[in-house]
Amino acid sequence: MRPVAVSRGVSRTVIVGMIATAFLGISISSARAAAAQACDASAYSLALQSLNGPAGTDLVIRITTATPACELPETLSQVQATVAAFRGKGAKQLEFDDVASPAGSASVHLGRLARHQRVSATITFGAQIVLTGTTRTLLRPDLVLTSLRAPKQVLTGRAFAVLVTTRQPTPDLRASALVTVTTGGSVVATVPFKIAPRTRLVLPVTLTLQQPARTRLDVAVVASDPGETTTANNTRRAVVEVTDFQVVPSSVLVPSLAGYGGQFNQHVYAAISRAVGVTDENVLVMEQEVRALHPEFSRIFFNPSAFTDPDRMQSFIRTVQLAQTSGATINITWQGGRLDVASGTIPKFAEVLTDLVKTRGITRLRWLPLQNEPNSTKMTPAQYEAQYRQLDPYIQTVRGQVRYMGGDLVRDNQQAWFDYLATHMSDILDAYSIHVFWDYWDTQKLQDRLTEVRAIVDALPPAEQKPLYVAEYGVRGLRTLNGVPQTDPGVWTDGTPIARTNVSAFQHAWFDALSARLGYAGTSKWDAYFGKYDNGTQAYYMIGDPVSGWPLFPMYNLMHLMTTTIKTGWKVTEVDQVAGTTSLLAAYLGPLGQQTVVGLDTAGAQLNTSSTTQVPYSIGGLPPSRKLRLIVWNQAGDGLDGPTAMVTTDAAGVATITVPQHAVFVLTTLRVA
Question: How far apart are CA 559 and CA 261, in angstroms?
C-alpha cells in the first residue's frame, strides 16, 4: 500500500475521504469532494470581543460562514488566548480545550484585564481548521432603565404607549437590546432597539390591555449583544387603570347646556281641563310636583284662540308663571295659524310677549319659535321666514332677552328646510330645533333622528351652524291591543299606558344621554303633566290626571334625577369608550368643578321588569380620591330613584360600579336631596 500524499493546507476531511475511497471502495462524488474542500479555514470568519465587567474579562468568540454547506462548530477543540503586556502588566497565555460553541458562539474567561489590553486568539475546531484573530479589551455596556412613564388610565382594547427611558453610560460599545412589558407574567409587548455608548434613549412601547382592571406593568430592558455588566438596574414598574370609559373634561361638546324639561300644557288652568277634573284646589298638587321637578329647558304653546278667550289667556299666563317659579328656561312657541301684520296677530302676539317680560317679570323667557312642525304643513320656508321678519320689529324691547329658535322640524323634508334656515335665516335665528317620536320597539329611529340631524347641521357652513335643541320627544306604544284602539301614545304589551312604563322612561334616558353626546343643547319632553290641549285625548305626560291624584310616573322620577344632578349652564364633555359596547355614558361639568355622569346599557331598552343581569362600569377621568354619590333609577324595577350610595374614586380617578341592566345610574359630586 502506498501512503497517500497530503499537500500542505489540506484538511483532515479530505484525507479521510481519500483513504475511504482507496481502502473501502466508497465512491465520493466530485461535488461532495468539492464541498468538503471548500469548508476549510477560508470558508469561515472569526469575530472576537474581549469584554470587561465587574466579574472580570470574557473573550467572546463568534464563528460564521457564508457557505451553506459548511456547518458551524458546536465545540471548539482548542482556544489559545494570548494577552499582551499592558501598562506594567505582563503578558500571559491561556489555553482552553473542548469549549462548547453552539451555533458557532463561545465564551472563555480571561481573568481581570485592563481596558484596551490586547488579546490574540487561535481557535481550532473540526478537522484541524484553525482561525486566528486579535481584539482589544472594552467595557461591557451597562443599560440603566432610568424612568418609565405610563398613563394613569387607559381604555380597554385601545392601544397606548409607555415611554421607556434607557441610559448606556459606558464608553465603548453599542448594544442591541430588548424592552419587554409583562402583566401578570404574560408578555404583552416587546421592542428591540440599539443604543450607542454614553447616550440616553426614550423609547415608546405600544401595547393594548384587554381587561378592565388595575393593572401592573413590569418593564425590563436587557442587552442581548453584547451582554451587559449587570441587570440589577434594568427593571421598573407602573400601575395603569384599564377602564371601559374615560371622561375627557377638556373636550367640550356643549359649552352651555340648557338642560332637560318638558312641555307645560297652557290650558291646564282653562275650562277645557277643568271639565276633566282639574280644580283650583287639586292643581296645587301638580304645581308642587312641577316645582320639585326643577325643570330646565321647557316649552309652552301660545294658541291664538287665547286672543278671543280670556279664560285661555289667563291659563296661558298662569302656565308661564308656573314655569318661571319652577326655574325653567322658557320656550314660548306660536302653536299654529295665521301670523302676520295684516291679520293683526303679530301686534297682538308681540303685546303678549312684551307684557310677560316687562309687566309680569318673566325673566326666564328665552326662546321664541314660530309655528309647530311647519314642514308637516303646506307652509313654505319663505312664508315661514316672513313671519319672523314681520314679528321682529314689534318685539325689539325684549329682544335682548328673547331669542329666535327656528325649525321644530319633523323628519319630512328636513334637509331642504335646514338648508333654507341656514341660507336665509341665519342672521335672525339663534338656534335650531327638531321633534322626535319613536315606537318603543324601534329604538333605531331614536338614534337615527339624532345622528342624521347632527350630521345635517355639521355639514352647514360654520357661520350658519346653530345650537341644536329637541323641542318635543317621546315614546309611543301599541296603538291597538287585541283589536281595540288605544289612547295616544299607545300601550305596552300588557295594556299598561306606555307613558307609565319603565321602558318609556328608560328610552327617554337613552335619548337624553345620546343627545348630549351628540352636542344637543337641551331637550323638552312631550309633555310634563295632564291637561287638555283640544278635544282630542293624548297621554304622554310624566304627571298623571287629577282624578287619580296627579300620580308620578317612572319618567317623572327619571327626570327628577337628571334635573337635580345636571344644571343649566354646565358643559357637556366627551366620554371616550371602547367600540362595540352597548353601554352609553354622558358627562357634565359645572363651573366650579361639579361633575355628573349619567349611564345606562342600551340592551336594557326593552326591559319593563327587573333583570338579573348586572352591568359593570369602569369609568376613568373622574376627580381622584373623591367621594361621589351614586343614585340608580329603577334599581329594583319599580321606576323609582333608589337610595344614595357613596363611591370613592381611586388615586387615578377611576370609579367602578355595577348596575342592573334595566336601570339608569347617576354618579355626581352634588348633594342630592
Answer: 8
* Contact in structure between 503 and 238 (CB atoms under 8 Å): no
Q: How far is C-alpha 343 from the chain's CA centre?
A: 54
The Cα 230–Cα 69 span in angstroms is 38
What's the CA gap between 474 and 480, in Å, rounded? 18
pLDDT at 224: 84
Class of residue 375 by CB neighbours under 10 A (exposed 0-12, middle 13-18, buried 19+): buried
CB under 8 Å to 131, separation ≥6 — which residues?
41, 44, 45, 46, 63, 122, 123
Per-residue confidence (pLDDT) for residue 245, from 0 to 100: 97
Compute CA distances 491 → 398, 439, 475, 555, whole Å.
Answer: 43, 10, 10, 15
Q: What is the grid cell recorded at 630?
A: 351614586
Using CA atoms, how far apart are residues 197 and 511, in angstroms rounded to an integer?
A: 60
What pTM value is reported for the model? 0.84
Distance CA 467, CA 4 (A): 102
28: Cα separation from own chain's centroid: 71
Angle in degrees, CA 516, 518, 523, rounded to 5: 45
Phi then psi for residue 620, to 5 deg, are -105, 175
Interior CA angle at 560 toward 555 and 566, to 5°? 120
Which of the 8 DSSP states describes residue 42? Answer: G
Alpha helices in 131-248 (DSSP H): none
C-alpha to C-alpha distance for 72 and 101, rounded to whole angstroms: 9
Helix (H, G, I), strand (E, B) or coil at 257: coil
Question: For the chain, how big is the Rg over CA atoms in Å?
Answer: 41
**For residue 194, which of 250, 265, 143, 245 has the smallest C-alpha distance?**
143
**Type of residue at 525:** K
Q: Alpha-carbon distance 467 to 665, whole Å?
A: 27
Q: Which residues pair with 523 in a beta bridge?
A: 260, 470
Contact 637, 609 (CB under 8 A): yes
In a 3-state reduction of DSSP, which class is residue 15?
A: helix
pLDDT, tens digit, 9 for 90 and up, residues 450-462: 999 999 999 999 9
Give me the residue label for grid cell 476531511: 13
Q: What phi and psi values does residue 562 have, to the nearest 5 degrees?
A: -70, -50
Burial 137-149 (b: 16+ CB within 10 A, else e): bbbbbbbbbeebe
C-alpha cell at 445: 329611529
Nearest-angstrom CA–CA distance, 160 and 238: 14
Strands 259-264 and 522-525: parallel
Residue 170, all three cell numbers = 459606558
pLDDT digits (tens, 9 = 90+) for 359-377: 999 999 999 999 999 999 9
How much is the average pLDDT of 132-156? Answer: 96
Residue 352 phi, psi (nearest 5)? -60, -50
Report the distance separating Cα 610 and Cα 39, nearest Å: 81
Give the amino acid at 644.
Answer: T
| Angle, CA 629 vertex, CA 627 and CA 633 arms, to 5° | 160
Which grid cell sits at 432?
Answer: 335650531
Please count the residues of the chain.
673
Q: How far is CA 232 from the centre of its chain?
A: 38
For every residue of 34-85, DSSP letters joined together read HHHHHSSGGGEEEEEEEEEETTEEEEEEEEEES-TTSPPPSEEEEEEEEEPP
* Residue with grid cell 481502502, as numbered in its chain: 23
3-state SS class at 584: strand
* Confidence tier at 578 by pLDDT (50, 70, 90): confident
Contact 59, 111 (CB under 8 A): no
Q: How distant is the alpha carbon of residue 435 from its chain centre?
A: 28
pLDDT tens by residue, 516-552: 999 999 999 999 999 999 988 899 999 999 999 999 9
What is the rounded distance in angstroms from the CA atom of residue 111 to the CA atom of residue 113?
6
Burial of 37 (0-12, 13-18, 19+ CB in 10 A): middle
Question: What separation in angstroms does the CA of 2 have from each of 7, 485, 542, 545?
Answer: 15, 121, 118, 127
